[in-house]
Write a structure and sequence with these properties.
By secondary structure, the protein is mostly helical. The protein has 10 helices and no strands. The N and C termini lie far apart (133 Å). This is Cytohesin 4.
């Protein structure tokens, strides 16, 4: 006896040909929500260990600190007093003459004109810093011109005569300490040093005519 089409349908062969019901908007929303939750969970698993990682925390602190230090140097190059205040305030520098002088003498990336302007100020602390800064130079067994060249390489002379005067006084005192007996007095060394500076300025100033 032959099997009818109706019976073959009941055995399931034609079942696979039935169209799937379309997903509703609610189903799509649920699926999207589950995907988002799964993504968030994965992110948490990656982020939480990093948050509690002391090495990463220390690294981030170091990066922030380095950026602040660079910002302080940039501030110094634009306005030396403001820059030094920023560095002291953020504990990169102690407000002590010797330490500030060492910073100005050794730190790379500082504008030499800014250094000269800062050293030439007349406030008592600036005079102490200038003295300490000059003290970092070794002038032993150098003639006056050689010593001046070394000294003036570490900064650029400011344009104000009073600032130059203070710097030459400090230089003369240091030179005489390093080379006792070369000059009868620091005044002689100071006058000659100042004269050399003025002569050099005149020779290299295009506005000065013969």
């Amino acid at each position: 006896m032959a099997i009818s089409r109706k019976d073959s349908f009941l055995w399931g062969k034609a079942m696979s040909k039935l169209p799937r019901p379309e997903r509703t908007q609610e189903d799509n929303l649920k699926s999207h929500t589950l995907e988002q939750l799964d993504y968030i969970q994965k992110q948490k698993l990656e982020i939480i260990p990093a948050i509690h990682n002391p090495n990463l925390k220390q690294h981030n602190k170091s990066v922030v600190k380095k950026r602040k230090f660079i910002r302080g140097k940039k501030k110094f190059n634009m306005d030396p007093k403001v820059g030094i205040h920023y560095l002291v305030e953020n504990e990169f520098l102690d407000w002590r003459a010797k330490l500030v002088a060492e910073f100005l003498y050794k730190e790379e990336g500082l504008n030499k004109t800014a250094i000269g302007n800062f050293l030439g100020e007349r406030e008592e602390m600036h005079l102490e810093i200038l003295k300490a800064f000059v003290g970092l130079h070794e002038f032993s067994d150098l003639n006056l011109v050689q010593a001046l060249r070394q000294f003036l390489w570490s900064f650029r002379l400011p344009g104000e005569a009073q600032k130059i005067d203070r710097m030459m006084e400090a230089f003369a005192a240091r030179y005489c300490d390093c080379n006792p007996g070369v000059f009868q007095s620091t005044d002689t060394c100071y006058i000659l040093s100042f004269a050399i500076i003025m002569l050099n300025t005149s020779l290299h100033n295009p506005n000065v005519k013969d």
